[in-house]
Amino acid sequence: RKEVEQDPGPFNVPEGATVAFNCTYSNSASQSFFWYRQDCRKEPKLLMSVYSSGNEDGRFTAQLNRASQYISLLIRDSKLSDSATYLCPEPGNQFYFGTGTSLTVIP
Amino acid sequence: EADIYQTPRYLVIGTGKKITLECSQTMGHDKMYWYQQDPGMELHLIHYSYGVNSTEKGDLSSESTVSRIRTEHFPLTLESARPSHTSQYLCASSDSSGGVRGQETQYFGPGTRLLVL
After folding, report:
1. Has residue B7 got a pLDDT over 70?
2. Cβ contact (<8 Å) for B111 and A42?
């Protein structure tokens, strides 16, 4: 039973572009949310935690929209090193990570 | 960087062999997890533990077993390896003491890539 859905991707964007992904959830009682990134053949790593109205870390901005029940990840000025799969684990279910959204930044 | 370690990083073994994948964390986390992931596919939870002497099976049916005798150590054992066990195995841990239940950040080890011939 999946309670989180991510943009299907893959996203192929040129260097310097701005790209955004969404992750919709159905558990309205969830209190906190996360974005992870997973590089090819590597382990997932926490990218950002998303609390209350969202947060920003350099080129990355995560937003929470409780009314529409989704979180978003915005990447500005994309770098080649941003190429990865971005995972949105199911809020309130620490076990389900989903398939993620694949991003490829093209030179 | 997360202080969670897995050994071996790569393992090639013949069918029928017994293997143990090691996972250790030095963060004092109470919760630990094992996931299986094939290339390009999603993570599948196979085992988890909420503390010493606590182990549970995950959503993915697995022929492996785990133990949690010490907080920092969560080994996974395959009694008889088969080619269908070929995959990447990822260990993770989280700390439930500071967060909302079910919302803790998980920290992953580097994984073990297993190839069963």
Report:
1. yes
2. yes
